[in-house]
Design a protein that fits this description.
2 domains; homotrimer; 6-stranded mixed beta sheet
Amino acid sequence: MHKMALPDYRALGYKGLLVALDGAVVTIIINRAKQRNTFDNTIVNELIEVFELCDRDDRVRVVILTAEPTAPAYCSGADISGGWNLLWVPEAEKEGEHAHRDTGGQVSLAILNCRKLTIAAINGHAAGVGMTGMQLPFDFRFVWEGAKLTFPFVRRGIVPEAVSTYLLPRLIGHSRANSLLLTGATVSPTSPYIRDLYHQILPTREEVYPAAKAFADELAANTSQVAVAYAKGLLLHPGESAEENHLLDSRAMKLLGSSRDGAEGVLSFKERRLPKFPDTLGKNLSSWYPWWRSPNVKHCQSKL
Amino acid sequence: MHKMALPDYRALGYKGLLVALDGAVVTIIINRAKQRNTFDNTIVNELIEVFELCDRDDRVRVVILTAEPTAPAYCSGADISGGWNLLWVPEAEKEGEHAHRDTGGQVSLAILNCRKLTIAAINGHAAGVGMTGMQLPFDFRFVWEGAKLTFPFVRRGIVPEAVSTYLLPRLIGHSRANSLLLTGATVSPTSPYIRDLYHQILPTREEVYPAAKAFADELAANTSQVAVAYAKGLLLHPGESAEENHLLDSRAMKLLGSSRDGAEGVLSFKERRLPKFPDTLGKNLSSWYPWWRSPNVKHCQSKL
Amino acid sequence: MHKMALPDYRALGYKGLLVALDGAVVTIIINRAKQRNTFDNTIVNELIEVFELCDRDDRVRVVILTAEPTAPAYCSGADISGGWNLLWVPEAEKEGEHAHRDTGGQVSLAILNCRKLTIAAINGHAAGVGMTGMQLPFDFRFVWEGAKLTFPFVRRGIVPEAVSTYLLPRLIGHSRANSLLLTGATVSPTSPYIRDLYHQILPTREEVYPAAKAFADELAANTSQVAVAYAKGLLLHPGESAEENHLLDSRAMKLLGSSRDGAEGVLSFKERRLPKFPDTLGKNLSSWYPWWRSPNVKHCQSKL
């Protein structure tokens, strides 16, 4: 990774997002309340950029995405005021139908590949990409008990997008994923169809972000940035069998166990105190990471 | 798909099943109450045929499998009055042990590969293939709260069949699947081992089919046949990574978003009315579908 | 499998474990209460050996791992009195960082590849490898309701090991696995994050092993050893698609349905009596089993 100036998150000058760094936690607020926090191309580009910045910035340990609790919705889906046509990009149109890249999926991949802990704090209603790209790629989801939640795709003549057919069954199993994705039903967070998706369900909209922030602050203070990156990598790319996973976690264990963070983990345990981990991804990540390869989805010719 | 006469489901002349089309919903009733609705070769062939018909018939949007609520069981497993020998086919016997094709699995694959929504309405006890092939490949399962449910295989000296070792862990996770498949225990639908398998649990046998039918009618009226087929395809063949899934759902999104069903999805949303989707699989499915390849399991030489 | 003397489990002379065969059930007791049942190299070698013995010994049908209910913990993790350095092996150190083999993972694989039913009876607190290698590879987990359970890895500067990033999401889904592995939180067995991991939760420490033993005795008496081995193999190596699984379970069905255990399964069912299965793995397993291949993880050059 090349040298770069540290971003001043407040000064990013985004139009669709408000962003701030507090301690080691970046909070991103969707800032389109007048448009019911719909998902548009401005938000797409800004979300991808800010998650890539957070991934690279060693000061950041946790990233939270949330909305104003007074907004009409956390995210009410794609802006389809002009039909689905708003989603097409002229350049890809020339290449052919295989060249289209779903913007929800681009955001999902940016979040999923962020090596820091990620939290969605869903303090309002959510639909469409507000359920998929804005929730499923995160490590944890906090939600308001009163939120109306819906994956309406089959009722809109389109498909569940933003990597949701891959992510949702992994998160909660195919039985519950079917009950959500193939019905387009509107459910509440306590529904047995969806409750396993949520780390915590809060009674009021106003409590969602503070609960997520307190959780984030505690994790930021007491977890190793490098250990988190390896754990996330192993969960996303565990190998194709138990044996392959054993080879992978053995190597990761050797690398981390021999590191300063590993030593601090033992020492703080013996001294019965909270740890203070010195290592960072920018300075202390082995060249072995990442151990997996991914198709280059940005190239128009990428096919399956 | 070549031209074909539309089937008259009531006139199929089946011996083990009663079949009828009502609106866009096909209901299949297992008609062997005197034999406790056991699974025999007649039912196998009729089930495979009717699910293949439903897959191809553009009039059909949802398929329900159920039993008479007065029957002794929804399906009490394979007919083993003559031992497991009833399962062997002379032709395969000559080829060798690799040539056998489990009939429960043939039914499972026919249901799993049906591109319409599928529902099992389990209004009685179920055992063996009555739990596997007759439940697991469906998109949704409605069940009677009083049903006695059992996967007895390890207590019968045989293996869980009908693709169940693949399907059940995907549906509810390996922890619960172990508690069912490796014990052969009899459980009720509200047991924590199995409850996540069911979309809805009904207090009486008589309520199961009507609940499933009302659910089916609503989905048939308000979902896109093509969108459902793509969503089911993506859930069954999501690609091997998040990146591959992104390439797949992007292409599906482009195809559907540019279709008449996609346009109707936007229009009905804007006009705050229920949608009326015009497209059908027979006339409007892209040649890109299916994007996956499957081994030809009907060929005796198919091996792994 | 070559001929071997039958082990006398009580006479194995282990230092870290007590082992006994009662009927067809082997019970292994972790015997390091003075060291809070920490995981050390002695236990590692003895666990691997005893699970390999149980796998091969036809008398054994179920294996239970437990602790003294009066011990301070079921297993409080690795012995890190000397830091993580205790984990490194000089021979692997010379080879390079890729040659390290995590001892927790070696134990996990020995348990996972044991073809008999396996049960962890967790009658005390558990942390680290006490949660991973000592719980996740088992078929069933019984637990004391008051147990404090924690996967502390990211708070210790290391990674979740012992194949846990592969096993835990498979068992209970990625949403709950994230809530455990990426937080390092301490939870109780009734927490929604972890309860699906457990087959049974018992009110007192003293009830855990007896409940597991009664469960084991019943399964040992009434299940087929060969059918269990095939069912476990199919769950661990189900093939890469529904079609592949159909080919695999068809072949297994043909083999078992034609076996003496298959015949006894039918006969006992017809005669409404409990079965008595004669076949054993040592004498009656087809050469087709195992149908999968695994990397040789013991070789230092094994890489991915």
